[in-house]
Amino acid sequence: MGSAAGTSPGRLVETNNNFDIIAQHPQDAASNANILAENFNPHGLSIDFEKNLILTSDYIVPLSILKPSLGIIRDNTLRLWNLASRSIISTITIPDGGGIQDVKFIPGNPDSAALATAVHLGQVWIIYPFKTGANGKQGKAELLYDLGPKARDTTAI
């Protein structure tokens, strides 16, 4: 999450069985251009090996939580990746999400759907990687459940 300096953009780090770093993603030009458009601070990660997909959720700019701080910078995006090439297919936005803490594919779901938590909103969203979003790109987020006022702006939901 975040760069080595705690800023954005961060990287998705790939390790071997000994936890040696073997790669940092993204590496291709199109994916690097994608992560420069909005903060990229992967926190949540889920992989669907059968469908060749990775979903990552962007949570916060790590440096922004250290004191002194001008305020926490929270992210509103998820990234849909091609597993084999480790390249970003698209960015999926949860409007005013205020930190997308985690994302997990739903085992056995016929649409390869995943669940994502939006911290500021106190909501659970369902992510459809093969549906087209309002931006015309692959990947769509739909509100699944609002946990109510007590869940808003809490870190662990």
General description of the model:
The chain is mainly beta. It is 6% helix and 41% strand. It contains one helix and ten strands; from the N terminus they run ββαββββββββ. It has a four-stranded antiparallel β-sheet with strand order 3-4-5-6. It has a four-stranded antiparallel β-sheet with strand order 7-8-9-10, with no helix packed on it. The longest helix has 9 residues. The protein is globular. It starts with 11 loop residues before the first strand and ends in an 11-residue tail after the last strand. The mean pLDDT is 90.
List keywords for this structure.
157 residues; 4-stranded antiparallel beta sheet; globular; 10 strands; 1 helix; single chain; mainly beta
Helix proportion of residues, in percent? Answer: under 10%
Radius of gyration from the alpha-carbon trace, in angstroms: 15 Å
Pattern of helices and strands: EEHEEEEEEEE
Q: Quote the beta fraction.
A: 35-45%
Helix/strand/pairing category: mainly beta
Number of strands: 10
Helix tally? Answer: 1
Q: What oligomerization state is this entry in?
A: single chain
Mean pLDDT over the residues = 90
Molecular shape? globular
Largest sheet, if any?
Answer: 4 strands, antiparallel
Query: How many angstroms does the end-to-end distance come to?
Result: 19 Å
